């Protein structure tokens, strides 16, 4: 299958290697790129806090940009969504990583369970977040009465592509499947100007989404061709191919 990968380029290249090992042809179309803010992360580490939470590997990369200044924080308990983000945290040197399957809501419950078992710390949790982001994790923390401070560690900046490149990739070549990892990326994809006069090229494509929230960004005309991963991780997403 010819599979469009819409992730940021660094992550997309890893996904491409996985797809090719499965016998697919990966076509990279990054529609956003991260702009990290390690200074904001460093300032936040000066606040009183007991634990750290991340919901994206990009947040871990923002911390890694601190270099040696990150070392004093590597024993802090870090809560993470999914194996990919947890592995990134472990590779960065964090020694106490607690992983939750699912999304932000599930991570909130996992943190609550951990605090119930081991005691709730007096200092708040620092959530190193991105922009844009879903509010589900912060809403769940608030509902569970878990004190937290949010810092924006990175922002996703839109990536533009020349119309000729888009035409070559999407119109001249067959599109069997498109992988969506964020709602914003799905919205950008369907807003690409190349589709204005070539909407029919997607009629035989399938759209594979990491979560229901992302799937809601797919236009209704493609509802029957949209599939959501059973669990929001890449393993389950690629199982849909």
UniProtKB/TrEMBL annotation:
Superkingdom of origin: Bacteria
Domain Tetrapyrrole biosynthesis uroporphyrinogen III synthase: from-to ranges: 14-238
> Keyword Lyase: yes or no?
yes
Q: Which InterPro entries match?
A: 4pyrrol_syn_uPrphyn_synt_sf, 4pyrrol_synth_uPrphyn_synth
Q: Which UniProt keywords apply?
A: Lyase
Any single GO molecular-function term of the entry would be: uroporphyrinogen-III synthase activity
Q: Which organism is it from?
A: Ferirhizobium litorale
Q: What is its EC number?
A: 4.2.1.75
EC class of this enzyme? lyase
Which GO BP terms sit in this record?
A: tetrapyrrole biosynthetic process
* Annotated Pfam families: HEM4
What is the name of the protein in this document? Uroporphyrinogen-III synthase
- What NCBIfam families does the annotation carry? PRK09189.1
């Amino acid at each position: 299958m010819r599979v469009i990968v819409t992730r940021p380029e660094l992550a997309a290249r890893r996904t491409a290697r996985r797809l090719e090992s499965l016998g697919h042809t990966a076509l990279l179309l990054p529609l956003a790129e991260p702009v990290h803010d390690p200074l904001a992360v460093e300032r936040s580490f000066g606040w009183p806090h007991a634990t750290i939470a991340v919901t994206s590997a990009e947040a871990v990369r923002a911390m890694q940009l601190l270099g040696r200044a990150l070392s004093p924080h590597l024993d802090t308990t870090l809560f993470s969504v999914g194996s990919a983000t947890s592995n990134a945290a472990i590779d960065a040197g964090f020694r106490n990583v607690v992983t939750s399957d699912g999304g932000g809501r599930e991570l909130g419950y996992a943190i609550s369970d951990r605090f119930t078992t081991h005691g709730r710390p007096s200092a708040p949790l620092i959530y190193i977040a991105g922009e844009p982001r879903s509010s589900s994790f912060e809403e769940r923390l608030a509902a569970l009465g878990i004190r937290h401070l949010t810092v924006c560690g990175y922002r996703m900046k839109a990536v533009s592509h020349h119309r000729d490149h888009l035409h070559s990739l999407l119109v001249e070549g067959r599109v069997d499947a498109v992988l969506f990892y964020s709602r914003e990326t799905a919205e950008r994809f369907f807003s690409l100007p190349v589709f204005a006069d070539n909407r029919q090229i997607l009629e035989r494509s399938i759209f594979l989404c990491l979560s229901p929230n992302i799937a809601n960004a797919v236009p209704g005309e493609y509802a029957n061709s949209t599939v959501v991963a059973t669990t929001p991780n890449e393993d389950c997403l690629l199982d849909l191919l």
